[in-house]
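lol ok so funny story. i was supposed to be doing the assay writeup but got distracted and ended up predicting the structure for this chain instead. priorities right. anyway since i did it might as well share w the group, maybe its usefull for someone
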Amino acid sequence: MTGEAAGNGQDGPDELYERLAVHVGQVAAAGGEGKDPVNEPMIRHWCEAMGHPVPADGSAPATMLQVWTMGGLSGHTAGTARSSAYDDVLALLDEAGCTSVVATDCEQEYLRPLRPGDRITYDAVIESISPRKTTKLGTGHFVTTRMDVQANGELSGTHRFRILKYAPARPPDPASPRADAKPAVRATRPRPVVNRDNAGYWEALERHELLIQRCTGCGTLRLPWLPGCNACGCPDWDTVPAAGAGTVFSYVVMHHPPFPAFDPPYAVALVELAEGVRVLGNVTGVPYDKVRAGLPVTLDFLTVDGEFTLPVFRSVEAGEG
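and the output, tada:
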């Protein structure tokens, strides 16, 4: 979710933004070192937690890029703390009342596989700070940092991380209606993040097709879409359409917190498709309290706000819905 996607509008330039903007381009962290080299146990534990097979060539899944830079519960070793410039940005926002923070976006680019034994170093820069934005959460600024991750001194990937530091919006007092109050506007769903790696997935949904990536190296199927194969590391792939049959593997019922454009309670399921991959989606055609693991479902499509399409899953059991 970028500032432009999340904000209801951009306020005019102000003194705070001018003070923040001078930090753009300054170092956020320098000379950082991973606490451990890339290693097989961490790769195995991550793959088990994510439900992915360990890549056949022993390399780390590309999406583990940030893992090797984390400090863990004990924090980073001396000399790898973030810079005073980044702390200054956060302090300026705190002083202005922007004391709340939410992570809004993460983008990664992978340039080479990471293999056991690789020593990880990294540097980070404050890449951008947005002008003041007014969002439903409140008013604040989006701060984006870019981390360049090196393996044995060679650039292996880039990690961009964006936060919103904001002053929480105060809920309106129903006992004091404003004279200039406007009619309520129907809330819209959050928009999906579409990028070069997943654009084909969203385009296919508009055609009422759910496309599964297939590695052309080893034939492994995968959802969600990824830039490369977790099984063998091959970057080449094609797609196969999902047949539509599936089974609820796991689910949650959302009761709280209520969110605009959603009407709780409702069920969100992790559905295992007949092809063996799993995908998240709402369950329809059955009351939320009747959803269960093992429920047979079939693929359906929901057009949201007349703008984009999502996969949903309808119960196929007789008498349900």
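Residues 1-13 have pLDDT under 50 and may be disordered. The CA atoms of residues 29 and 82 lie 4 Å apart.
back to the writeup now i swear
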